Amino acid sequence: MLLPPSPFVCQKGFNRNFLGGVGFGFDPIVNDYKFIRISEVFLDSDWCPEETVQKVEVYDMFIDSWRDLNLIDQQLPSVHSFPCFEKLHRGTFHWYAISDLMDVILCFDISTEIFRNMKMPDSSNDFYEMSYSVTVMNEFLTLICYHGPDSEIDPIRDTMDIWIMIEYGVHDSWTKKYIIKPLPIEYPLTILRDYLLLLHSKSGLLISYNLNSNEVRELDFLAYPKSLSVIAYQESLISIPKRGP
């Protein structure tokens, strides 16, 4: 199903960036599906914009309409797109963002429509050139810290770390669950069955890493590098409404 175009149009002399911050999910309070999109509006210039204005739009499927979300003087961190980072968990969207030169997780409650920042584990910011992925394991919000494909990896010092948040929303409950030797990957995809880590290799292969046995397998699936993504399917009795008559 295609969504109708947003009615928002940039004024002359301004431009718009979509760097990340897209989500779709069901709001049980109003019994409706919502689509959210975060963008940055800035003065169209040959130079990097010194100041940007963030714009948040919400599409309500039941009434088939877009609306602006008033941030009420709230300045959101700068949202960036990381492969396999955008995650809906416990009724909240999670995106990678940068606030005051620190990596954070930007959270958006789909029902209250309130934003908040979630700090990453303290030691996850110890090294430069780290990349991140978010998934869910054993019903816990899970953060995967890894070295990106362009990083120079030290096989002795560097690791891929998997953190779980034992108590959702409590920073001190971040716990390092697994420490893995670095692998030649583009990025992690997801964790299946709470133990099978799926990864996208630099050569385009889909590979799996068994967190219980440390076994690495190349699966019979090949794609262009940086093209793979995994979406976990979850059955629901709530259908998505159709647009139009």
Automatic annotation (TrEMBL):
Coiled-coil segments: none
Short name of any one Pfam family annotated for the protein: FBA_1
PANTHER family: BNACNNG10540D PROTEIN, F-BOX PROTEIN CPR30-LIKE
Residue span(s) of domain F-box associated beta-propeller type: 24-185
Domain of life: Eukaryota
Protein name: F-box associated beta-propeller type 1 domain-containing protein
Lineage start: Eukaryota, Viridiplantae, Streptophyta, Embryophyta, Tracheophyta
NCBIfam families documented for this protein: F_box_assoc_1
